[in-house]
Amino acid sequence: MTKKIVFLGGDGVGPEVSSVTADLIGKMDLGLEILEPTCGEEAQEKLGNFFSDDTKKICDESDAILFGATGGISGRILGYLRWELDNYINIRPIKYYPGVRSPLKDPEGIDFIILQEGIEGMYPGREGDISTLAEKWMDYRDIFGQGFGDHGDGKFAIRIVTDYRSRRFLRFSCEFTRKRKHGGYPGNLVCVTKANVLKISDGLFFKIMEEEIKHFPELILEHYYVDDMARRILRYPQDLNVVTTSNMFGDILSDEAAEMVGGLGLAASACIGGRIPYFEPVHGSAPKYAGKNVINPTAMMLSAKMMLDHIGMKDAAKALEEGITSVYKEGKYLTQDQGGSASTTEFTDAVAKKIGC
Known about the structure:
Number of strands: 12
Number of helices: 12
CATH topology of the largest domain: Isopropylmalate Dehydrogenase
Largest sheet: 10 strands, mixed
Distance between the termini: 24 Å
Strand order of the largest sheet: 2-1-3-12-11-4-5-10-8-9
CATH architecture of the largest domain: 3-Layer(aba) Sandwich
Low-confidence stretches: none
Radius of gyration: 21 Å
């Protein structure tokens, strides 16, 4: 049956990178049904609804969704894409392509994956007034003997770590690492926590990690605290294979890591594990660049590459990545963030030419 793919532009530069990528995938003539319903700020202005029932129905009946970028109102679409669809696995590749601008002296050979649990942890924000905790939890005392009422006026945020969600995510992390090992990569899996301070919540997370890794004797488990891991990513990037962690830590570390291999303009991601997978660039809506035809669409294209791979079109995924790689290696049609002067559409046309479209 024909695969149905939905492109949701979102806000800011999202519709631009979404549109050129949808056109590129269409030109590859893969037999996909490609739909581009309006959503986000544009839909709010035209239709009075940023994510209509009709658009949601189209998404519900699709095989995969590509989301351009979230900025203002369309941020609530992520509630559907991630939490309602239960896409608890966030995959963020960190890979250096020759010709890409990197702040590192020697970025050659960087090729690892950051996996982050996508449903719980600090996200979505569960916040409120400290006074509420003081009223509801009067007997609580921290290691310094303070209760919530001793802090005065202020706010709190709650971090949730559950056995079920951590276990399914960490089991996937092991399976993912084993699959990469069979594909020629090392078998090392790094778990990142702050269990020296968050002894109960991150203590549970790492305890489950230790339990799950026992089922994968061919893998090597390493464990680093998040502050130390931030240093190690910069110092030893070529030694990394798969890094697994909770939501907020992964969010921060993946942005840091992306900067080493060209910046957020190349940072792709896949969110899978739920009813319908979705794929999106990490860079956000970047509203100051919207409508100027200058944004780098690579992150969206690499997200589309991940989508093609996920739905079983591995040859097409490989061809798309090779086309992007060739454009960077040649260096003639690079966007401003990569030291060039090519527009969004010029870069896209160059990729299309490389893959014969």
